[in-house]
User: Fold these one by one.
Assistant:
Number 1:
Amino acid sequence: MTSLDKNHWFTEISDRDGSAFSLRINKLLEEKQSPFQHVAMYETTDFGNLMIIDGCTMVSTRENFFYHEMIAHPALFSHPNPKNVVIIGGGDCGTLREVLKHDSVESVTQIDIDQVVTEMSLKYFPELCTSNQDPRATLLFDDGIKYMREAAPESIDVVIVDGTDPVGPGEGLFNHAFYQSCLKALRPGGVLVQQSESPLMHMPLLLEMRGAMKEVGFGALQTLPFPQPIYPSGLWSVTLARKGMGFDGFRACDPQALQTEYYTPGIHQGALSEPPFMARAFAGE
Ligand code: SAM
């Protein structure tokens, strides 16, 4: 049996969940304390490179496709013609790469507060950064909360909130004021999508997010679960909210043309079928 000694294993201890998750590592590649957070990169034995922010697992080479595809494609295919997209956070650039697979998209502005995350991703996840030079992409390093507060009304089709957990600089991405800014900046029929933590471990937070989205005036919500092997519980979710109208299905795509690893129209349809434990929790809203 191998012991989980610090030199060979990275362990994320999740106090709030009473759980821990470990990956075996070869070595620490680099670590930096930015003005906003501590960013570390490890080489693992089986998951490729691994990015850690403030002690929490963020992205690994092997499994990041689940998250990046599910935060991008269901929202974009739920909009009839998404042209202008904003990504808040997303500094590893994996979500940006997925968004730019959509031909309808004319512009994507990504606003991550921390340039160090993107610098590290360019170095250790170059495959996630292959679309950074796309002429439709603009990368800004600033506070996404401020950016959305100042965004022109009715100027955006899809807002993607690919942020950290609701602690540190990501805290203000989960409250009424932020959702109000998003609602104002979206065109009618526009879609907001946000990573919404684990439906198994963090249901109170998920209900709080959904409540705040509804209270500011989003018409319809969808929470889609998906596997997320390196996050607490292994089950994660995104929540979509639509401005001014309900969801009316989604456009089907050819997954081979889109070159996805996980997303297909069938997976999208399946994720819309709420498991009873989630449906029961949402019924009480
Ligand atoms: N995409 C990753 C994954 O697979 O889970 C995790 C997300 S990581 C890229 C979250 C990003 O949100 C970090 O780069 C962090 O700097 C950024 N962030 C946190 N608070 C922010 C804020 N207020 N404005 C903009 N970006 C923020």
Number 2:
Amino acid sequence: MANKKILVVPGDGIGKEVTAVGKLVLDAIAQKYHHQFSYDTALIGHVAIEATGTPLPDESLTKMKQSDAVLFGAVGHPKYDNDPTAKVRPEQGLLKMRKELGLYANIRPIKLFDELLDASSIKPEILKGADILFFRELTGDIYFGEKGRKNNGNTAFDVAEYSRYEIERIARKAFEAARTRRKKLCSVDKANVIETSRLWREVVQQVALDYPDVTVEHQFVDATAMLLIKEPTRFDVVVTANLFGDILTDEASQIAGSMGMLASASIGDGTGVYEPIHGSAHDITGKGVANPLASILSVALMLDISFGLTTESNAVIAAVDAVLKAGYRTRDIANSSTQAANIVGTEQMGQLVLAYLK
Ligand code: NAD
Ligand code: IPM
Ligand code: MN
């Protein structure tokens, strides 16, 4: 029996709606497999700014550090998206959480459930068999370098920085994962132009010497963006820098059918954070239509990676698969041939997964 302290951090927008469902799935797993999961919650993002004036209060950070795992939703609010001059922003909370918890590896699996072959705008024959594991570096790059204005505010700059050590540790994680899969690693950079990318390529080439069983390919990010759509099945494990990884995985979500399908694990040396890759989606907030499967699949990653509960993790994935096989779809993964009666909302989708789990 596992005894775990889980911190639920819903954040903003649909973050609240989807983590509520994720938590129900954790409850069902605890009940079925006789584990003891205890929960607490913490504020982050816009809701934290409203309540405390800061996007990641110290109290939230302390709770995160004291938990066995964090189930995170999303942050963001249109108020800040449309005000480039705002000094305090929800996203700062997310970045601070990643930095303070040392979450340098963001693992984003792009796995297409067979039943969703026709949910994507990409042709089924191109998609069939696509299964990519992204390793996005998460605590460096242009996100965390010095930023500011000069020239009386008329010039802006963001410094991109990477150290050898930062590149090496994410590269090693990706190589280790490739070893357990199809033994192919694609390292994505822009070494033809950018200095941090040149260091990136140099370090990955060096690390590769320790993994002679893994075939390594180096690609420029612009080509990767194209190849992901042209031939997604050519990829196995992909490792890349923070900004490139952010952009490429939103693109790759279309291989899996929707942003609402993509889960992620953010890991480092301490508490792991499990989060959908999508944002607070204010266009659909409060409508009860958000796809909760990304949050549910993030729970599956938590059970596996942080708790080592692989049977339980596989049971969650199998339940999702069963619900999709039965034909149920949230709006984002439905298509013109989906029967109207099979189009369900956030809570209903959650209940269906729970029913298959039990
Ligand atoms: P978004 O991911 O919130 O939404 C993009 C599109 O995908 C929207 O049309 C949305 O409705 C759809 N979508 C996203 N998740 C879905 C789900 N579960 N089910 C169905 N449809 C879904 O990205 P955005 O619109 O560019 O950003 C909105 C806000 O979220 C911004 O403030 C941004 O900073 C923030 N954001 C936060 C995170 C995070 O917290 N990890 C990630 C991305 C964006
Ligand atoms: C993500 C988001 C964040 C990122 C933003 C909201 C800071 O897009 O989690 O993918 O860029 O990392
Ligand atoms: Mn993103």
